[in-house]
Amino acid sequence: MNETELKYTAYEYYPIGIDSIKQREEYNNSKEFKKLLFAVNQFYKVNEKKINLLNDEFRLHPLTKNIQDLSALDFDRCLTFELDILDESTKVAFKIRLVISILIPYFFIYALQSKVQLKPYKQLTLPVRKRELESIKFVQEIELIANIVKKVFQYDLFQEKYLKFVIPNVSHSDIREGDFTFFNAFFRGENFSLYE
Q: Model-level pTM?
């Protein structure tokens, strides 16, 4: 999908010009928001077998057998999986995060890093995205995860260049107009820029 197609797809699920905070009732009653809720609920019903198969495929491979399905913990527009890797010698925790959109046939994978204390275990810094981890340290894991997703869902990798594209006149939850991006529309309700 190109930028225009992505924007018009987003407009199907998020009302234009209605502030999700100041006009909450109008927003929640909009046909777009109702369509979003229906799509999210329907996705889980229709794709239950695929989701189970995806988890089974991850468990078959030594590199991905410990991946965790965090999808039930959030109400996001995606399935979310994380593979945690701890380097005790440097006291650094890594996360390989997979997000699979519920609204469009795309997924994205990125790596996060944070400093930790080991005993007792405690995160000392917020996770930060590290692109070099994706292209050097965790290439094997990321390629394997991508291949499994493509095999099970037949989805494509979402293009990085579109992640931070701001969708005009749209807000959702606590994300205001002017800050709502394709990443927010199709994946997670957080500021992707915070990871960089």
A: 0.91
